[in-house]
Amino acid sequence: MVRPGRVISRQGVRLAAPLRVPPRRRRWSGQIHSIRPERVDRQAIDSYALLFGGPDCAAQCIPNPAGGRGKMEKTGMKRARRTQDERSTATREALVAAAIEVVAEVGYASATTSLIARRAKVSRGALQYHFASKADLTVAIMEAIALELNFRFDLEALRQAPLRRRIEAMIEHYWDVFQGRMFRAGLSIWVVLAGDPELARRIEASMRLVREGIGSVWHDLFSDVRCAQRDLDTILHIVMATMRGSAIAFLAGRAGTDFGAERRQLADMALHAMERLVETEAR
């Protein structure tokens, strides 16, 4: 007895089964032949478009009663393709963001490149293309933290505000960043720098340029405070150091602490210091 699908020659020799080609899936042509154009409503269009073309097609298909039996036209279906540079930049940013998340969750030592690539949904090869080593990625993480900390606010709007409002806005912005994943990732990296002098040297060289940018932003925001630049830098360093200490205490879960009151007190101290500097310079 010959099984279905077998090919047997006259001599009874079993031959290979014929190759089965899967049926070709027909793509939706944009026409609905079973519905007359005058009876086509938006609900029917959405139903057919979602079934055959997806949600984008449903949103962009319109009926064309003059075009025949339920014929539909697609408008604006093609999306602008990103350039190679745009795709490369997006991949790099996704890798840095994924690295920050992973380091904040599992710590720097356990944050392997495989885990970071998996979180970013890219291949290991893509990660190595943008960052040849974990140290390169670590430097990019620290740069991203510094940029988020010091350049993500509207200088034009703050520059017109009263002095105390500007100080409070800066402190609140720092506090928001220090409570997030970026600061936790930065803490994990800072802990290992003592045992890795080469990585510490690279990060210090990168942070030197970032600190120069921070100083320029700080001076631009408080350009009306007539005092020496070194004195303004001293106030900035004190504010930043105090904020980092409060953030570490917050992450450690220090009970019974009113961190809002601490920030208000810090704003009072910074305002008083600036006013004293202005008075000293005026004498």
Summarize the structure.
The chain is mainly alpha-helical.
Write the layout of secondary structure elements.
Layout: E1 7-8, E2 14-15, H1 42-52, H2 55-60, E3 61-63, E4 72-74, H3 84-106, H4 113-120, H5 124-130, H6 134-150, H7 155-159, H8 163-178, H9 181-193, H10 197-221, H11 229-251, H12 259-282
Antiparallel strand pairs: 1-2, 3-4
Structural account:
The chain has 283 residues and is mainly alpha-helical. Among the domains are: 28-73, no CATH class; 135-282, Tetracycline Repressor, domain 2. The chain contains twelve helices and four strands, in the order ββααββαααααααααα. It has helices at 42-52, 55-60, 84-106, 113-120, 124-130, 134-150, 155-159, 163-178, 181-193, 197-221, 229-251, 259-282; strands spanning 7-8, 14-15, 61-63, 72-74. The strands form two sheets. The chain has a two-stranded antiparallel sheet with strand order 1-2. Strands 3-4 form a two-stranded antiparallel sheet. The N and C termini lie far apart (114 Å). Residues 4-10, 13-19 and 28-75 have low confidence and may be disordered.
Topology as a string of helices (H) and strands (E): EEHHEEHHHHHHHHHH
- Helix/strand structural class: mainly alpha
Poorly predicted spans: 4-10, 13-19, 28-75
CATH architecture of the domain at 135-282: Orthogonal Bundle
CATH fold call of the domain at 135-282: Tetracycline Repressor, domain 2
Helical stretch tally: 12
- Proportion of beta-strand residues: under 5%
How many angstroms separate the termini? 114 Å
* Average residue-wise pLDDT: 75
Radius of gyration equals 31 Å
Report the principal-axis shape. Answer: globular
Largest beta-sheet characterization? 2 strands, antiparallel
Assembly type of the chains comes to single chain
Number of E strands: 4
What spatial order of strands do you see in the largest sheet?
Answer: 1-2
CATH hierarchy, class of the domain at 135-282: Mainly Alpha
Roughly what percent helix? 55-70%
GO molecular function, one term: transcription cis-regulatory region binding
Protein name: TetR family transcriptional regulator
Keywords: DNA-binding, Transcription, Transcription regulation
Organism: Allosphingosinicella ginsenosidimutans
